[in-house]
Amino acid sequence: MKIVRGTIDNVDSWTRLRTALWPDGSVEQHREDIIKTFLQRADRAVAFLSESEEGEIVGFAEGNLRDDYVNGCKTSPVAFLEGIYVLPSHRQQGIARRLCDAVGDWGKSQGCLEFASDASLENEASRKFHAALDFAETQSVVFFRKDIEA
Q1: What is the C-alpha separation between 41 and 28, in angstroms, rounded?
Q2: Contact (Cβ atoms closer than 8 angstroms) between residue 58 and residue 87
Q3: Which residues pair with 79 in a beta bridge?
Q4: pLDDT score for 134
Q5: Is-contact 107 81, C-beta < 8 A?
Q6: Quick check: 11 and 3 in contact, CB under 8 A?
Q7: Which partner for 58 in 10, 11, 25, 90 could form a disulfide, CB atoms 3.0-4.6 Å apart?
Q8: pLDDT tier, 140 (very low <50, low <70, confident <90, very high otherwise)
Q9: Tens digits of per-residue pLDDT, 66-89?
Q10: Cα–Cα distance for residue pair 112/106, rounded to 1 Å
Q11: What are the C-alpha distances in Å from 36 to residues 55, 108, 109?
């Protein structure tokens, strides 16, 4: 298994994995986001892909530099793990850790002192995953909204 930086050559495989993680987005939306965010803004965003010995892309991790306030962080910019996914058939092999480490190392090379991520309160699997990768939970937040009539 090797970890490679995402390029235009892996967009189709990468798009399929993104669609599995975030099924609310269309294939076209994911493809467009990959190109605009990770390929055209390679100075601010990165993706690493896990490639099997057979050449199949089996996982990805996407990271971004965030200059705005990141909950629980004290410095700026912060390397931020935007998404991570490994095919179910390839889980429990250390792939997610290697992908996450690649994003963290990229953040360090960009001058970041902190690496952050988030998960919804009810996503217990994601919270356990982050804890297993040595992320410390810093805050729990519930957001509120209401309509304002004109």
Answers
A1: 19
A2: yes
A3: 65, 115
A4: 92
A5: no
A6: no
A7: 90
A8: confident
A9: 998 888 899 999 999 999 999 999
A10: 9
A11: 25, 23, 22
> In this predicted structure, what is the pLDDT of residue 145?
82
> Using 50, 70 and 90 to split pLDDT, how confident is the model at 97?
very high
- Whether the CB-CB separation of 61 and 48 falls below 8 Å is answered with yes
Residue 142 to residues 15, 121, 138, 145, Cα–Cα distance (Å):
30, 8, 14, 10
Instruction: Say how far residue 97 (Cα) sits from the centre of its chain.
Output: 12
- State which amino acid sits at residue 74: K
In angstroms and rounded to an integer, the radius of gyration of the C-alpha atoms of the chain is 16
Q: Are 59 and 49 in contact, with CB atoms under 8 Å apart? A: yes
pLDDT of residue 149: 85
Confidence (pLDDT) at 143: 78
For residue 59, the surrounding DSSP H or E stretch is strand 57-66
**Residue whose C-alpha is closest to residue 90's, from 128, 54, 52:** 52
Contacts of 50 (CB under 8 A, 6+ apart): 1, 2, 3, 57, 58, 59, 60, 86, 90, 95, 98, 99
On whether the CB atoms of residues 72 and 112 are closer than 8 A, the answer is no
How far is Cα 145 from Cα 51, in angstroms, rounded to an integer?
A: 42
- Kind and range of the H or E element at 49? strand 45-51
Q: Which residue has the tokens 């298994």?
A: 1
